[in-house]
Design brief:
By secondary structure, the chain is an alpha/beta fold. The protein is 29% helix and 14% strand.
Length: 241
């Protein structure tokens, strides 16, 4: 079984929902999600360099990430599947879709992109624009843990801070240059009280790069991690469409 998967995938032709992890986190991003969304089995993904794969180096580009991930999920693209991603995970999801397409594999039935604006317009969120030489990574990961209700122990904070800084550095090198529409429809989700990527930024410009459906849900930036009922309803509707 690939290191990307924290548990065995269902056999047969059951539909799959691949969940890309939140920045600085791994498969635990989906700890509070249901095991199934409609008929789709949730598959939380564990990239190298995070959580149970800390000893492995992180991918140094979005293209390398997508190449490795598609090698793992490629055998499952002969069934219905979808991809969901939040904030800084969205660029990785987009590159994954394009990698699937370049190999002639079936694209996902839908990509859900939460808290991220149109990719051709650049990066989003405060951490993607600050001077990394001034970044207090330990303070950032501790604050993130506190907001999630998951306190970060001191002996782990240093390691997580290093991972966060490296991920932010890699994100700075991302540029979306696709000349054709994305080969799958996208559901773009913003959150009414998002103080990281405001809802007004999330919905601008996506029509230039994909066939989209827009949703604004009540809640804050990190409410995605709990998959509230309103988000489940959106997923149920669009995955079964």
């Amino acid at each position: 079984m690939s290191g990307w998967f924290i548990r065995a995938l269902p056999g047969g032709d059951d539909p799959l929902l691949f969940g890309l992890p939140y920045t600085g986190m791994g498969a635990s991003s989906y700890h509070d999600w249901p095991a199934q969304v409609g008929g789709f089995h949730l598959v939380p993904l564990q990239p190298p360099g995070r959580e149970g794969r800390f000893r492995e180096g992180v991918h140094q580009s979005h293209a390398a990430f997508a190449e490795d991930l598609v090698a793992a999920i490629g055998p499952y693209t002969d069934r219905r599947y979808a991809i969901t991603a939040h904030c800084g995970a969205v660029p990785y999801a987009l590159e994954t879709v394009w990698r699937v397409h370049s190999l002639g594999l079936a694209p996902p039935v839908r990509l859900l992109a939460s808290s991220w604006g149109a990719p051709q317009r650049g990066l989003y969120g405060r951490l993607n624009h600050i001077d990394l030489s001034t970044l207090d990574g330990i303070a950032e990961v501790k604050a993130m843990g506190a907001r999630l209700g998951r306190p970060v122990p001191d002996d782990l904070a240093d390691l997580l801070a290093d991972v966060l800084e490296e991920e932010l550095r890699i994100q700075r090198g991302y540029h979306y240059r696709a000349e054709k529409p994305l080969p799958c429809p996208v559901t773009v989700v913003g959150w009414s009280e998002d103080d990281v990527v405001p809802d007004r930024e999330v919905h601008q410009g996506w029509e230039e790069v994909a066939k989209v459906r827009h949703e604004t849900l009540d809640g804050r930036h990190r409410d995605y991690l709990s998959c509230p009922p309103a988000l489940r309803e959106v997923l149920l509707r669009d995955l079964e469409a």
